[in-house]
Write a structure and sequence with these properties.
181 residues; 71% helix; 0% strand; flat
Amino acid sequence: MVSKYSRGIVPAVLAIVLVAAVAHVASSSPGGMGGPMGHRGFHGMHGGMDVLGVPLPLLLKTANLTDAQKQQIHTIFETRRASRKAEFEQLKTAKEAIAAKLTSTGPVAASDLSSSVATMTQVHDQMMNEQIQDAIAIRNVLTPAQLTQISATKAKLDSIHAEMKALWAQSGSTTNSTPTE
């Protein structure tokens, strides 16, 4: 027999866990860290624009851009700003619709969420295509020497990331193992 206390507490705990999970998914937007990185210059571009696996602003900082190049890159991102804001609003609306259905008291099936999921997929695809177009436009602004510098920086960052991943894997395997004495 289940007590009245457990009949009230279990659904409440499940609802809290579900809301936390939805919040986590909603905060992991393509904008990284929950949204765009900023609103000025190329630092505010597309939530980091990490089509290279590394945020492009980080790579561009090592390229020693001229003022003219900075202005060209700024213009590339400002041109896309209005559509990017609308895309983030579409994602937010779709995520809120999913959260509302998942936290409702009625039954929910995957088909109830398919419209919102399809919207999110379409917007993500559109944003990725726009990021690729913008990355190509930015690449066309850079000199061969700057491209070489960016390539070297990316290689260093990739190496550091691989080292970090190896350390995490190593620390995970040592904590799961049983010490022998």
